[in-house]
Input
Amino acid sequence: MSGNELGIYVYEINTELKKQLKKPHQYLWKYYAEDRLLNLLDSSELFFTNVPKFTDNFEGLLPAKARNSFIRWCIDNGSSPTKAAQEAIHYENTRNNFYVSSWHVNDYESYLMWKAYANESRGYAIRTTFERIKTAFNSFSGIINGGGIEYVNYADAHINFGNVFNSVSTKDMPYSDESEFRLFFWKEYQQNKTHPIIEGGIKIPVDLSVLVECVYINPLIDQPSAKVQEALLKHEIKWTSSLIRVQPTYV
Output
């Protein structure tokens, strides 16, 4: 929210994730390749990806059953079938105005997340908490929302299409291992309309001393690179070794 704490938008997320997000000290993780981490540390700006740029082509689209229900609703309210189909496309195009920063909800590191998002030997993971992330955007004059993802079977799921946040807060069930919490920047808020857009997304100023509790280094390396150590030292951010063991240790 403008000049204040993060406005949390909570969709009807799965029960376990909802329980986790009610804990102020719940850990949230973001996994980075080294160049992306350095970009964050050098700029003090968090990158938000435009929803259509995600690799999942269904991001922000209505599941088939929900789309059919939307079209039927439009027809029941006076639209022709052709116009109703166009209105469904227009509704789904609202995803173009959403930008997202994705975080993994977990009490511990995730080997799956290391492999998926920081799998080269220079990968890193930021650990923060729900409490920290809520107050890390105090210097930003626009509006940021946050909420957990609802994982559904896209073949037969129905979602409430009365709120445009719902479709960008829903993902197909195969992604459920990501246990994702999202930060949302919605371009249609009056306070956000003039914020500059860059290729593939936007950047939002963030207080790194608040956001980042510590940085974990890839399980395959012993210490951060010299560049990363220098950037962390500049912000007085501590780093720690991964607790994941990739080689057996014998005593």
About this structure: The longest helix spans residues 64-76.
